[in-house]
Amino acid sequence: MIKHAATRPYNFPSISLKNPRINHNYKQLLRSCEDLKSLLQIHAQLLVSGIKFDDSINTHLVKSYSLFHKPDIARLVFDFSENPSVVLWNSMIRGYTRTNQNREALFMYQKMREKCVKPDKYTFTFVLKACTGTLNLEMGLRIHEELAKEGLESDVFVGTGLVDFYCKVGKVDVAKEVFEKIPDLDVVAWNAMIAGFSQSLEPFEALRIFYKMQLAGIEPNLVSLLNLFPAVSKLSSVHSCRAIHGFVIRKRFPHFVLNGLIDMYSKCGDVDSARLVFNRMFGRDDVSWGTMMAGFVRNSCFAEALELFDCIKREKLKLNQVSAVSALLAAAEIRDLEKGREIHDYSVRAGIDSDILVATPLMTMYAKCGELEKAKQIFEDIPRKDIVIWSAVIAAFVQNGYPKEALSLFREMLRGNLKPNKVTVMGVLPACGETSDINLGRSVHCYVLKSEIGLDVSTGTALVAMYAKCRLFSFAHTLFSRLPQEDVITWNALINGYAQFGDCNRAMEMFHQLRAAGHYPDSGTMVGVLPACATMNALEQGTCIHGQIIKFGFEADIHVKNALIDMYAKCGSVTTAEYLFNEPEFTKDEISWNIIISCYMQNGRAKEAISAFCQMRSEGVWPNLVTIITILPAAAFLAALKQGMAIHAYVVHTGFGSNVLVGNSLIDMYAKCGRLDYSEDYFDQMKNKNSVSWNVMLSGYAIHGLGKAAVAHFHRMQETCVEVDSVSFVSLLSACRHGGLIEEGRKVFHSMSLEHQIEPKLEHYACMVDLLGRAGELDEALNFIQKMPMAGDAVVWGALLGASRMHSNVQIGEIALVHLVNLEPQNATHHVVLSNIYAQSGRWGDVRKMRKSVSSMGLKKTPGCSWVEIKNVVHAFKAGDQTHPQFDKMRRLWNDLHEKMERIGYVADTSCVLHNVEEEEKESFLFSHSERLAITFALLNTEPGMPINIVKNLRVCLDCHIAIKLISQITGRKIIVRDASRFHHFEKGTCSCNDYW
Hints:
Number of strands: 6
Distance between the termini: 98 Å
Shape: elongated
Strand order of the largest sheet: 2-1-3-4-5-6
Number of helices: 55
Oligomer: single chain
């Protein structure tokens, strides 16, 4: 190799034996080499010259080859040396450490000792570096013993190497002992100690060493600061950030130190200060942009991160890997597929798209945005896929909710004869658990045991979690007991497994066993055990866990805080959930907002849910997929159409529209907001419909009373080979009962078991009772109930009672009430309905008895309440409420409308007023019905001709139904009312229900 190089024509000074200056010039010549070819040329000429290679020449050659990262050639030089000196041995050992061939360096040291060459302090320094590189604690301890015998432990160079070694192997306490024995500490030794504590569990000690260093008269340098930054980041101490920031300004460090400040501020949660540092920087480089973008993403400021990406693109700056990764993560979190594609294109132009650091978040972004095929295509386009990229794509699919696709990729990887490593195993086991693929899970378990991976704490925990998710708790416990050691995370896997599958008592039992075994719970334990309390509705136990959270100092952990809020919300303690959520020091993420929105929805407070959603947006937190699915039912419940449409616009912007769950929620929202036409349009445009999509549309036809349209839709389902289920028949029968399609309803009900092998449930029987009852077939309805294969529930008997009120049938109404009192003794509504029947029949004595009975039992009637959305604000009105600021104007408007209604023949139907008082007084009661208050308010506060949407929690009474028809005629307004039963579209004096509801 060397002889071949010597034949090449390089113009260097000739070297010969006759040249007396050869021994003086060769060092200068070797130092002048700027590349490997030059070095080979000089080496060749030295060989040709016939000069005797002494230790000095060989040492310079070894050093030179090492500088060009060619330790193999350096080793050839070394091996041809006779009796190499300690300096030459040191040069060779150092050459190996420079190229991270630390095992070779340690081998050379052992060979040196075998040759009885006595090491000097430099030998120990280089060998300690090799021990550090291999994390070889045993060898490092032997070296420590040797240099202690030589009295070199207190030498600043050797001592610093020891400090660095012990810090890197996690023995920071030993490092500190060595550090304190060094009499003359220099800045390098102090920096090593700062770095050690920064990476340890005692980051505060790094700050103490930094201050102590200055007291000792040692001026910190750039490395001191760079080593200190991770400690401050771990402490999340903004105060320390500012102190160090001041130090940097006073000492006038190079401007690129500001990149470290940006990173430090961001990791401490003060992203605003980080942005100030960034904005005031002169000469920002691509590292500055990348660090700032990473800081924004870390603090969930995704919009700000994408704004910086736009600046990079606009100013045609270099896009490095960190910037690209941060931008992709931001786009993925807010599901902005369009922006993700833009970042992808820019990465391609920058030539970094195939870099594994960029390719992985690219795949993740497309996976999160539902573009699985694109994610797979990026993966396929990566050349020379190794186990690292396979592991990355499998993890990306698993973490984004596509376990089946992840398993498919894993099997494809195996077919390519690639052996999974520990990372692959840790990625695929959760997918086995999510899909309950126990056969593959067991195969992976066997592979772990037979391969070099082995069963350690991490793989053992992943296996325990997999078996727990597959509900094979006996296997999980057996494996758990056989682990060489288990940590709290392993216990958490069992606790979470039991909690997720509803065996909450067992989850709590495992929690107590964890404590009894002497383990301290961590934040993950608390996150696992709190849902168990929520599922059991065990508020007292949850409060006890809350106490332990405070005791162990986990209350600042955002995941624990979110789990606590969720527990209190699900246990009905909304006030406590709100208190925790609104604590000033609580930095909320999107999960926190999702929990509080869900809390309001679970407790029937849709208005507060929408308010929380708006506040979430105003505080710069981007709603995610869960947020959208949670908030759309709130807009649907309140018929807040404008809010719903605003959410729809956000869905389009973020690319969530391709998600079938969001699509189904939008169909439902528009239907419940009275815009069935929008529901139909969206349904027709959906590419990925499932059976739920069809059922939601069917339900929309039902609540609008469009029986024939529902039947036609049901036939389309069958023609399209969509599987109909129990829910489909509930919606279809409901549509038939609202549309008065008696014969169609009978046919549908009988076809369930005969044609579709679906046994009717109580809800189907309830629909049939209501269908027959509304049609006046009360005797048939009662007979139908008596022939049911199961006992009727409150919904069934309630349907019969409602039909009895509709047809003023006291006898059957009384029969229904007897059953309802047994089923729901605390529900006053049933007594009120029978009171209505008595009032309609003029039996005021029975009305008084019924009212007295309700009063004596302490029962309360659910007050009527109506909602109307005006200018994006939802206004609520309760029956009889006269406290509204505009009540006087509303009263005057109603009086004017009442006069006009009487002129066209309106006569108040006071049969629903349960008071034996004068007719005039009864009419006054009628005006206080909540829907009339809402309508008069809407007429006062909207432009003429605008439709009015009202939502009412109870069924519209007969007189209100008549009155609203006339109001629509007088005002020329379309008035849409959604009551507890269905939609009524009032227009030009008629109603869509055709007076059948």
